[in-house]
Automatic annotation (TrEMBL):
UniProt lineage: Bacteria, Bacillati, Bacillota, Bacilli, Bacillales
Protein name: 2-isopropylmalate synthase
Gene: leuA
Span of domain Pyruvate carboxyltransferase: 4-266
Catalysed transformations (reactions): 3-methyl-2-oxobutanoate + acetyl-CoA + H2O = (2S)-2-isopropylmalate + CoA + H(+)
Family affiliation: Belongs to the alpha-IPM synthase/homocitrate synthase family. LeuA type 1 subfamily.
Gene Ontology BP annotations: L-leucine biosynthetic process
Length: 510
């Protein structure tokens, strides 16, 4: 069976999703989970895009050891130097350098001739190969490029030192037959093609990213690039969980497989959804909450008699319902700690003490604490701990039909001073946010607000995701609580605190 490498670009192309802005700690948390999942390559960011991106790529490259870490660069010496600075700490520094090859991109975006693009690509790969032991080269918009020209430039960059050749369908325009044809053409017309690995990178503009990626695998690609939950620029990238499960479920057809730890898939998807705020639809293949739910009588009857009548994937295989033991208010420290370890959640002794107190408080109100609750709780503690400037001490809301909703909040401020304010709004959330804005003393613009329950049941925890603009900076924040109003207040403060944290760090590094 051929081994197919999984190249995860959730932290680079995935982060290009409109509205997604992961901070440093969140990126590290995702990278650790991708390592646990067993991906072959993590594209950790685009170091030249910002000092923050460069720093997080560097941190990921130094921490992650179980797989390769790469970063993207344009074909410019400056981009590649910045990427080198971030990636050289890695065990095997690997650069991903790209330039567009299609007529549209050459003419309108790059304003370069065919020859100039070839020259630029060759020089950049040579320069990259003088520093990096592994260079991946991508022909952006390859699927709209003249085939003979694509074959010509691919041969040139292989001669210049590229070891992996990526053929992106940048705008999601291709079809499975056409895309497989491109790989077949390159195999037949590029003399040095056997010296390199071929990679696929698809976008989902016409809903065909998974189908196109799999077609490329059948035509000889040995690396598939994509993101978890299919997030990414515009309609997103290939959803890796779909490709991984297609290869696994239809080994007979593809005769190829991956080294992915399948039962980490659901947890990876949940983490990414939680941190990006991009909710996974119930009917999403492989990881949607309805993907293994049978609603109609005939289906239920079939499944009761024999699961495989309507289920081609065992949900436990990808990490659904693995644990049926719930923790509750009578659980002790040992059970709590053991469960966190089983869930792969690493916590320090100090974090453990705080978490156990919060766990008991919540378990008092909630009958059962599920794995989802525990993961949400730990992330909340880990991801917000450096960012607690404004801290919610208490909140009270008055709401009634035909009454103006009123909120009273008490916060501790940056210097631990107590701030108490009251305010009104058209609804309870607006009353809270108006009051918090008054307490903070500066304009905070709310750009987005989303609410989700963690797990099911009437007593499920509420998770709120907000996007705000504060001090001219866009930021997102999450809040977790038993009550939706408290979770809303926490999410808002978390987003504000993240801006303060960012500004403090900027002023220290200046
Ligand atoms: C298909 C993809 O996903 S590509 C990756 C997309 N990711 C990103 O863009 C990451 C975020 N981007 C950024 O932070 C910024 O765009 C930066 C830092 C990369 C560049 O910023 P700026 O220098 O201000 O340039 P800006 O983004 O306005 O324009 C891009 C420039 O790069 C050029 N360019 C685009 N691709 C390449 C390439 N592969 N190699 C060399 N130059 C390129 C464009 O032609 C344009 O050049 P011009 O200024 O001479 O017209
Ligand atoms: C930079 C390349 C690999 C890309 O993301 C694309 O072409 O979609
Ligand atoms: Mg892309």
């Amino acid at each position: 069976m051929r081994k197919i490498k999984i190249f995860d670009t959730t932290l680079r192309d995935g982060e290009q999703s409109p509205g997604v802005n992961l901070n440093y700690t969140e990126k590290l948390e995702i990278a650790r989970q991708l390592e646990r999942l067993g991906v072959d390559v993590i594209e950790a960011g685009f170091p030249a895009a910002s000092p923050g991106d460069a720093a997080s790529v560097k941190e990921i490259a130094s921490i992650v050891k179980g797989c390769s870490v790469t970063g993207l660069a344009r074909s410019t010496q400056n981009d590649m130097d910045i990427a080198w600075d971030s990636l050289r700490v890695s065990d095997e520094p690997r650069l991903h350098v790209f330039i567009a090859t299609s007529p549209i991109h050459r003419q309108y975006k790059l304003r370069m001739t065919k020859e100039e693009v070839v020259e630029n690509a060759v020089q950049s790969v040579k320069y990259a190969a003088s520093k990096f032991p592994v260079v991946q080269w991508s022909a952006e918009d390859a699927s709209r490029t003249e085939l003979d020209y694509l074959a010509f430039i691919v041969e040139k960059v292989i001669q210049a030192g590229a070891k992996i050749i990526n053929i992106p369908d940048t705008v999601g325009n291709t079809t499975p037959i056409e895309y497989a044809g491109i790989f077949k053409y390159l195999k037949e017309n590029v003399p040095s093609i056997d010296k390199v690995q071929l990679s696929t990178h698809c976008h989902d503009d016409l809903g065909m990213a998974t189908a196109n990626s799999l077609a490329a695998v059948l035509a000889g690609a040995t690396q598939v690039e994509g993101t978890f939950n299919g997030i990414g620029e515009r309609a997103g990238n290939t959803a890796l969980e779909e490709v991984i499960l297609a290869l696994y479920t239809r080994k007979d057809h593809y005769n190829a497989g991956t080294d992915i730890v399948l039962n980490e898939i659901k947890r990876t998807s949940d983490l990414i959804s939680r941190l990006t705020g991009m909710v996974v639809p119930g009917n999403k293949a492989v990881i949607g909450n309805n993907a293994y739910v049978h609603e109609s009588g005939i289906h239920q009857d079939g499944v009761l008699k024999e699961k495989t009548t309507y289920e081609i994937i065992n949900p436990e295989l990808v990490g659904f319902n693995v644990n049926n033991m719930f923790l509750g208010k009578h659980s002790g420290r040992h059970a709590f700690k053991t469960r966190l370890e089983e869930l792969g959640l690493e916590v320090t002794e100090e974090e453990m003490k705080k978490l156990f107190i919060t766990f008991k408080e919540l378990a008092d109100k909630k009958k059962e604490m599920t794995d989802d609750d525990l993961v949400a709780l730990v992330l909340e503690e880990k991801l917000s701990k450096n960012e607690s400037f404004f801290d919610l001490k208490s909140i009270q809301i008055q709401y009634g039909t035909n009454q103006v909703p009123t909120a009273t909040v008490t916060l501790s401020g940056r210097d631990n001073e107590m701030i108490q304010e009251a305010g009104t709004g058209a609804g309870s959330i607006e009353a809270i946010y108006n009051t918090l804005e008054k307490s903070i003393g500066e304009e905070v613009k709310l750009l987005d607000y989303r609410i989700q329950s963690v797990g099911a049941g009437r007593d499920a925890l509420a998770q709120v995701f907000v996007k705000i603009k504060y001090k001219e900076t866009e930021s997102s924040g999450r809040g977790l609580a038993q009550d939706v109003l408290e979770a809303s207040a926490k999410a808002y403060l978390n987003a504000v605190n993240r801006v303060i944290y960012l500004k403090d760090r900027e002023s220290v590094s200046i």
